[in-house]
Specification:
Layout: E1 2-11, H1 17-27, E2 31-36, E3 42-48, H2 50-60, E4 68-76, E5 85-87
Parallel strand pairs: 2-5
Antiparallel strand pairs: 1-3, 1-4, 2-3
Length: 91
């Protein structure tokens, strides 16, 4: 199992990005979480099949219709402690 941490920047809060990310990650059978960050970005920790992680990262560059994504940072990560994909508290 591979894991990836994505930090999505732009107009990504207040536009349904977290709900969209949950649906996208669950559809790809990924584990992890999504959360807002106080700096205005959205952080996603996802783990699973490498191809599914790649598809999620590519989709995050677009996000939901109201989002305006300016950058998606990719970082290697450790897998989450539990299965499933949910929303986590703001960091």
């Amino acid at each position: 199992m591979s894991a990836l941490r994505l930090v999505v920047r732009g107009r990504v809060q207040g536009v349904g990005y977290r709900a969209w990310a949950i649906r996208a990650a669950r559809a790809l059978a990924l584990d992890g979480f999504v959360r807002n960050r106080r700096d205005g970005s959205v952080e996603i920790l996802a783990a699973g099949d490498e191809a599914a992680l790649q598809r999620l990262a590519e989709a995050c560059a677009q996000g939901p219709g109201a989002a305006v994504v300016s950058a998606v940072e990719r970082h290697a990560a450790d897998p989450p402690d539990r299965p499933g994909f949910d929303q986590a508290p703001t960091l």
